[in-house]
Specification:
The structure holds two protein chains of two kinds.
Chain A: H1 2-8, H2 10-28, H3 34-55, E1 61-63, E2 68-70, H4 72-98, H5 105-121, H6 126-144, H7 151-182, H8 187-192, H9 199-217, H10 225-232, H11 235-242, H12 244-260, H13 265-288, H14 293-314, H15 317-344, H16 360-363, H17 365-379, H18 385-399, H19 403-428, H20 442-457, H21 465-478
Antiparallel strand pairs in A: 1-2
Chain B: H1 4-22, H2 28-54, E1 64-70, E2 76-81, H3 85-102, H4 110-129, H5 133-142, H6 144-154, H7 159-188, H8 193-197, E3 206-208, E4 211-213, H9 216-232, H10 241-248, H11 251-261, H12 263-276, H13 278-283, H14 285-304, H15 309-329, H16 333-364, H17 375-378, H18 380-394, H19 400-413, H20 417-441, H21 459-477, H22 480-517
Antiparallel strand pairs in B: 1-2, 3-4
Helix pairs in contact in B: 1-2, 1-4, 2-3, 2-4, 3-4, 3-11, 3-16, 3-21, 4-5, 4-6, 5-7, 6-7, 7-9, 7-10, 9-12, 10-15, 11-16, 12-15, 12-16, 14-15, 14-20, 15-16, 15-19, 15-20, 16-18, 16-19, 16-21, 16-22, 18-20, 19-20, 19-21
Classes of the chains: A mainly alpha, B mainly alpha.
Chain lengths: 480, 518
């Protein structure tokens, strides 16, 4: 019985042990190539973990007195996270090498953050949730400041750390209020013991918790860190920030809201609804003025997260499936676009200005067309898969009766399409020749082509991914 | 399942794909090969669509050549045509080879140009034969992207402003339609157009933000669809994107924009607004008639004062679309038949007119009326052809332009004679601007030096004009060729609309009855 606990946390334990082993190896090894070895070993370990969590249900179950649960939902989301982080590491290799940032600490920090994400998703308990949240966030602060020679990077790391610590504090305060009202930290206990007498304290605590979670998701009005951190961090960190943590925090938010606070559905629905609309509209408008492509992508991810939250607002199985589907597609598009951005960067100060992609259609037509596919998908234009991502979100929201939300979101997406179109304008309409030379390694090109083609072909056939997510969500709602 | 419709639909896409993979612009011969491949693809598509017409059964009103395939989620990739969509498909496949020949002299990025047009053809045919509402929406909106690139890359001086305005304006309208589509799918549980046509949306008055809305949910959904189709058509006052887009687009782009993309709005009204929202259409009839009449008169007057030939023809397109919307919302057999005919004939005529402007522009590099005068002396054949299409634009009996206008006005007169009396002014006004344009450009003395050495039409240009002239006069004398396609389907549509509105009206009468008897 006791042993079963450790079996359930098997994947996380395995990753922790490998992380520690790599750390020791890295410190004490005299080999010159040890950084590369550890880098690729991390990728391999994460892929192995993905296969384990997705393929077998060896690790299924509930551990440590129902504080840590590995249900179908958790396992499936873990597989997606591990896959996307491995892909992020694969794509970032060349950029890290050329920036002299390829030290063994980088993949180990990424590994630690990933372990935190995995713990977060499985949490059934406020403390385990906090542990996971902090474990995933602290390495991110370091990763943002990773480029010791860059002032911007240190600034990004510091801003991220300060604001992140503040938001974690708010979250912890909310947790303590809830503990005070309910007397227990387990989600299940929270859901059954809320009644009229203590509901106002729980709502207050819920508000604070949502503040902390919205920060991690970079939703307005807790989004201020995103543009500066995205711009200042080294681009591989930006890619990592923009991808897997969003899915992890979304899944965790879904779990805590749907299982823990199911009696307060009206409350958090309204809050999230307003946050979502603000994110979509503000993210779209603010992105229009951006000249740096990483800042533009930061605002764009703010607005994307707004859309993803709308699915959560619906509060139904369909809604959560739509949210997760949206985030998965957002992951693929982000990895695709960042593969391009990673190769745009040079030693130049404004190498990342969006005007640098002018004339790309003449110098590298294949790259330009794939980039156009990714951009149109991000804007939500049919026939790309980004349209279907938005379609399912709107479908779920309208089904739940949130029609005005959808109308405002839709108008926000039209405003947002302007800056996406402007990128296409730079690539195709200019007469100037491109000033950058983008040469990707074979594997990066493969990933880029895969993302670009998937975005187009995915509209014909979802390849079972939506079914996969639907099964995951089903187990969450059943497992009450 | 016969796959004729799939062949028509996917052949341009396959052509585009082959061009993408194998096309290269290295040598002169390869550029010629690219153009020839595009031409062959579009001609082949036309021939297959002729087979569609030949095998079409004119006596039934149901959808034919139906192909139903599994797609994503609960949606189905369903294609089919009926008497209303078939003429539009033929129009598209007929015009595309002419458009390719018209673009023969493109020098810059020929491969991308041909790929864009072939993909546009694929999307346009898809709009007209989609039988699943989300599939329709997908094709409808996806057509914006190639058009955005066509205007933006190969357009005129101010093309960036024009293409962004075109894209964002049209996107705003269609995205509101998306919300209505999703709501409709939610309400009825299906996304199949044929099933949706039989679904009755409630037209009870509802309260929205304190306002009482007559016709309730149906009116709101009608308005959302109207936003999209009115901007696409375009109807006054949502027409401001059209003059800019037309002036800045390349010749072939304007031909396609005017001939086919505009008709998607009219098709949308016929396929969605009338069958799905009949009571709302009846309630909003006066509103639509009002803006149609304003469109006809106002834009004709604006066309008269234009100095750029292309802008003049663009405004005349808006005016002609005013007749179309009057015909559609008259909800009478004559009216709708006339509206469809007007759309087809306007497609041919405006394509010819824009090509005529392109012919002039290629020779003198200007579109200003002041730069021309006396072209009849050096370009007599061109003057003759331009005369044919000017007369067709005015609506001279004997050309196809007359039949459409006359029938739509006749159909509208049955219910709204006062609006039609004002619209008839528009017929006179169209003669005013068209004939004045013709006089200024073609007649008069040949004073300007650069015009004295202009060559008349080349063989290529004659090849483009010939089918257009023949169709215009043929359909003007034998309009039956189109009416035999549309008649039964239109009758079915009208019967359905009348039944639904009568049902609503009769239930009102029944309620009155009950109240009185109490």
């Amino acid at each position: 019985m006791y042993l079963n606990n450790f079996l359930v946390i098997g994947i996380e334990s395995g990753l922790v042990l490998s992380g520690l082993f790599f750390l020791v190896l890295g410190v004490f090894s005299k080999s010159k190539d040890i950084n590369k070895i550890i880098y690729f070993a991390t990728i391999f370990i994460m892929l192995f973990g993905a296969v384990m969590s997705g393929g077998s249900n060896y690790f299924e179950g509930s551990a440590f007195n129902h504080t840590f649960i590995n249900d179908n939902f958790a396992l499936k989301i873990k597989m997606l996270i591990l896959l996307s982080v491995s892909l992020v590491l694969v794509v970032s290799y060349r950029r890290l090498t050329s920036n002299n940032l390829l030290v063994f600490e980088f993949p180990i920090l990424v590994l630690c953050s990933t372990i935190g994400m995995l713990v977060m998703i499985s949490s059934q308990d406020l403390i385990v949730l906090f542990v996971g949240l902090e474990l995933h966030a602290l390495p991110l602060y370091v990763l943002a400041a990773f480029n010791k020679r860059s002032l911007k990077s240190s600034e990004a790391g510091l801003k991220f750390f300060l604001l992140g610590a503040l938001s974690s504090g708010l979250l912890l305060y909310g947790c303590s209020l809830i503990y005070g009202a309910v007397g227990s930290i387990s989600f299940y206990d929270i859901s059954i013991s809320s009644d009229d007498s203590n509901s106002w304290i729980i709502l207050l605590g819920l508000g604070f918790i949502l503040c902390g979670l919205s920060f991690k998701l970079s939703i307005v009005p807790f989004h201020m860190w995103a543009p500066d951190v995205y711009e200042g961090s080294p681009t591989p960190t930006t890619l990592f920030l923009a991808s897997a943590p969003k899915l992890a925090v979304l899944a965790m938010t879904a779990r805590i809201l749907i299982i823990g606070f199911e009696k307060f559905t009206d409350g958090w629905q309204q809050i999230l609804c307003i946050l979502a609309i603000l994110s979509i509209v503000f993210g779209s408008i603010a992105a229009i003025a951006q000249k740096n492509i990483k800042r533009l992508l930061a605002y764009s991810s703010i607005s994307h997260m707004g859309f993803a939250i709308i699915g959560l607002v619906a509060g139904s199985q369909v809604g959560l499936t739509a949210s997760l589907w949206y985030t998965v597609i957002y992951l693929i598009m982000t990895i695709g676009v960042f593969t391009f951005v990673l190769n745009m960067e040079t030693k130049d100060v404004d190498s990342l200005s969006i005007q640098n992609i002018s004339g790309l259609s003449k110098s590298s037509p294949n790259l330009a067309i794939l980039m156009t596919f990714l951009i149109c998908s991000m804007a939500g234009l049919p026939p790309f898969i980004g349209f279907f991502a938005k379609y399912f979100i709107f479908m779920a929201a309208i089904e739940a009766g949130f029609i005005w939300t959808v109308v405002l979101a839709v108008i926000g997406s039209v405003i947002g399409s302007f800056y996406y179109l402007r990128l296409i304008y730079y690539m195709y309409f200019g007469d100037t020749e491109s000033t950058i030379s983008i040469d990707m390694s074979r594997i990066e090109y493969l990933v880029f082509v895969f993302a670009g083609v998937f975005v187009l072909v995915g509209s014909l056939n979802f390849f079972g991914v939506d079914e996969y997510l639907r099964l995951a969500v089903e187990s969450l709602f059943v497992n009450d | 399942m016969t796959y004729l419709l799939s062949y028509t639909l996917f052949l341009p896409l396959i052509g585009a794909f082959i061009l993408m993979v194998f096309g290269n612009e290295g040598k002169k011969e390869s550029i010629l090969n690219i153009k020839i491949l595009a031409l062959v693809t579009t001609c082949a598509t036309f021939l297959i669509s002729v087979a569609l017409v030949v095998q079409f059964d004119y006596s039934v009103s149901e959808f034919q050549f139906i192909e139903d395939r599994k797609w994503v989620a609960n949606l189905r990739f369903k294609l089919g045509v009926d008497g209303i969509s078939l003429p539009f498909i033929i129009l598209t496949t007929f015009l595309m080879p002419l458009v390719i020949i018209a673009s023969w002299n493109i020098k810059d990025r020929v491969k991308d140009y041909m790929i864009a047009f072939l993909i546009l053809e694929f999307l346009m045919i898809g709009v007209f034969c989609a039988l699943d509402i989300v599939l329709f929406y997908l094709f409808f909106e996806a057509g914006l992207i190639p058009m955005f690139l066509i205007i933006g890359i190969w357009g005129g001086k101010d093309r960036i402003y024009a293409t962004f305005k075109f894209f964002l304006y049209t996107l705003l309208g269609s995205i509101l339609m998306l919300v209505a589509i999703i709501y409709l799918i939610n309400l009825s549980g299906t996304s199949d157009i044929a099933t949706l046509s039989r679904f009755a949306v409630s037209s009870e008055d509802i309260l929205l933000l304190g306002f009482s809305i007559r016709g309730g949910v149906q009116t709101l959904l009608w308005l959302a669809f109207f936003a999209s189709f009115a901007i696409k058509m375009p109807m006054w006052p949502f027409h401001t994107w059209l003059p800019d887009a037309h002036v800045q687009a390349p010749t072939a782009g304007s031909m396609i924009l005017a001939a086919i993309l505009l008709k998607m709005g009219g098709y949308g009204f016929l396929r969605f607004s009338l069958p799905l929202f009949p009571e709302a259409s009846l309630l909003m009839q006066d509103f639509v008639f009002f803006i149609s009449v304003v469109a006809i008169i106002y834009t004709s007057l604006v066309a008269f004062v234009q100095t750029d030939i292309k802008k003049l023809i663009a405004y005349s397109s808006v005016a002609h679309m005013g007749f179309v919307t009057m015909g559609i919302f008259s909800m009478s057999h004559h009216g709708i038949d006339g509206a469809i005919f007007q759309m087809i004939s306007h497609g041919i005529i405006s394509a010819a007119l824009f090509f005529g402007v392109g012919v002039m522009y290629e020779r003198t590099n200007t579109r200003l009326i002041d730069a021309y005068g006396g072209l009849a002396i050096k370009m007599p054949i061109f003057a003759l052809i331009f005369m044919v299409f000017t007369m067709a634009n005015v609506g001279l009996p004997g050309t196809s332009g007359f039949v459409g206008e006359f029938l739509s006005l006749l159909g509208a007169f049955e219910s709204k004679p006062i609006f039609v009396s004002f619209a008839l002014l528009g017929v006179i006004l169209s003669a005013v601007y068209a004939l004045s344009l013709y006089k200024k450009v073609i007649f008069g003395n040949l004073i300007k030096e650069n015009l004295k050495t202009l060559p008349d039409l080349s063989m290529r240009e004659k090849v483009v004009f010939a089918p257009l002239v023949i169709s215009t006069i043929l359909f003007g004398i034998f309009p039956y060729f189109i009416f035999e396609m549309t008649s039964i389907s239109v009758q079915f549509l009208i019967t359905k609309v009348e039944l639904e509105t009568a049902f609503a009206a009769s239930s009102l009468v029944n309620q009155f009855d009950l109240v009185l008897r109490k």
